[in-house]
Specification:
The strands form two sheets. The chain has a six-stranded mixed beta sheet with strand order 3-4-5-6-7-8. By secondary structure, it is of the alpha/beta class. It is built from six helices and eight strands, in the order E-E-H-H-H-E-E-E-H-E-H-E-E-H. A hairpin with a 4-residue loop joins strand 1 and strand 2. Helix 4 crosses helix 5.
Length: 242
């Protein structure tokens, strides 16, 4: 779980870009988070598209996960993206889309940006969006912000309807604070990123939240906390300052 002055993430999001769709978020400070609300809303069981005609076979998922791990290595040359998170990065997305490794991930687009790692397909197999996978080896805010900015450029260059980042951080990372600081950088107009989302997990597989980075972090947490507190039997406590 996020530590320090930050707070856990986990608010459900409205992928249409019109704001938050809080659905009884159940987030507890300093404890293991409940199953990620946003993906439960999007995917039902999180299995990736509910058995659409274009859902990959087990062999296809295995190969895809292996490919993503090969592409995301640490300073020691070994895969930094864990096997568990590689499979998570290939889970289905919003609007009942399915995910598969982008065969053009090693190439660049006409703007010189590296292509995203994963493409999202609708029920008919048409391209609906992209997902970029990012990892950092050490819990350093500067590196997180650098990688987040890189991903935004990669996704924006594609101009797709659905734009996502799957971000693996080391356990103990204060991802909530980092994302908030990225949003608050001088001259940053976060409104243009409404509808772009980042799903943050740590290297133990713990979900740290799925976030619309066009919505202020403080606003997201406050509204999620209010919804959780209103839920029957909730024991959620507010984050400091919320």
């Amino acid at each position: 779980m996020a530590t320090g002055v930050g707070a856990p993430l986990g608010a459900a999001l409205d992928y249409a870009g019109t704001g938050l769709a809080i659905s009884g978020a159940a987030t507890t400070i300093g404890a293991v988070a409940a199953p990620n609300i946003a993906y439960a809303v999007q995917n039902g069981d999180g299995g990736g598209g509910g058995g659409t005609p274009h859902e990959e076979s087990s062999d296809g998922k295995d190969a895809g996960a292996a490919s993503l791990r090969f592409e995301h290595k640490g300073p020691d040359g070994k895969p930094l993206l864990t096997e568990e998170n590689a499979y998570k990065a290939l889970e289905g997305g919003p609007d009942d889309t399915t995910a598969e490794v982008n065969p053009e991930l090693k190439g660049k687009n006409e703007q010189g940006q590296k292509n995203p790692d994963v493409k999202l397909l609708d029920r008919q197999g048409n391209l609906a969006g992209f997902r970029e996978v990012k990892t950092i080896a050490n819990p350093k805010q500067a590196r997180f912000m650098e990688q987040l900015s890189s991903a935004t450029k990669q996704l924006k260059a594609k101009g797709a309807k659905i734009n996502e980042i799957f971000f693996q951080v080391p356990k103990g990372s204060d991802a909530y604070k980092w994302l908030g600081d990225w949003q608050k950088q001088p001259g940053r107009d976060i409104s243009k990123w409404r509808g772009y989302t980042v799903r943050i997990v740590d290297d133990t597989g713990e979900e740290l939240g799925t976030y619309d980075w066009g919505i202020p972090a403080s606003m997201t947490w406050a509204r999620a906390a209010e919804a959780a507190e209103a839920a029957p039997g909730s024991r959620t406590r507010r984050a400091p300052g919320c």
